[in-house]
């Protein structure tokens, strides 16, 4: 949600999730049934295109480039990993493997939004 710059209401209206299924083929079949129409997080209703609707629009160059870099890396990872590897991939693992030179804008954006690494949370225990 923080990266997409959308509120929960905006996501529900403009980029609804398909819901969780046990395997990718079931997710794809459910998505193709078109319950959300084109207002799904990843719109596959068009024959020749795939539309990522996750992100809110922006006029900021750095935000646009970071968003494009994230979508590019999502696509690359989806092609490279097996279904099991994708299911097991955490956000931290995804971010840690980013190429600093290839994705410098994305990494800078993630750092600005405090999404680059999970920093330990320090808390005081009650005594």
* Oligomerization state: single chain
What's the helix-strand series? HHEEHHHH
The number of distinct structural domains comes to: 2
Proportion of residues in β-strands: under 5%
Describe the structure.
By secondary structure, the protein is mainly alpha-helical. The chain has two domains: 1-55, no CATH class; 58-118, no CATH class. The protein contains six helices and two strands, in the order ααββαααα. It has helices at residues 8-14, 24-32, 61-80, 83-88, 91-96, 104-112, and strands spanning 42-43, 51-52. The chain has a two-stranded antiparallel sheet. Strand 1 (42-43) and strand 2 (51-52) form a beta hairpin. The longest helix has 20 residues, at 61-80. The chain starts with 7 loop residues before the first helix and ends in a 15-residue tail after the last helix.
What secondary-structure arrangement, pairings included, does this model have?
Layout: H1 8-14, H2 24-32, E1 42-43, E2 51-52, H3 61-80, H4 83-88, H5 91-96, H6 104-112
Antiparallel strand pairs: 1-2
Helix pairs in contact: 3-6
Summarize the structure.
By secondary structure, the chain is mainly α. It folds into 2 domains: 1-55, no CATH class; 58-118, no CATH class. It has helices spanning 8-14, 24-32, 61-80, 83-88, 91-96, 104-112; strands at 42-43, 51-52.
Key words describing this protein structure:
about 130 residues, mainly alpha, 2 domains, two-stranded antiparallel ribbon, about 45% helix
């Amino acid at each position: 949600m923080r990266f997409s710059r959308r509120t929960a209401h905006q996501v529900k209206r403009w980029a609804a999730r398909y819901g969780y299924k046990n395997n990718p083929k079931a997710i794809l079949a459910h998505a193709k049934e078109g319950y959300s129409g084109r207002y799904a997080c990843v719109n596959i209703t068009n024959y020749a295109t795939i539309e990522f609707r996750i992100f809110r629009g922006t006029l900021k160059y750095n935000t646009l480039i970071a968003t494009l870099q994230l979508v590019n890396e999502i696509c690359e990872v989806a092609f490279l990993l097996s279904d099991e590897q994708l299911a097991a991939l955490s956000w931290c693992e995804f971010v840690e493997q980013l190429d600093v030179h290839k994705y410098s804008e994305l990494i800078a954006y993630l750092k600005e939004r405090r999404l680059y690494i999970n920093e330990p949370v320090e808390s005081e225990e009650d005594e």
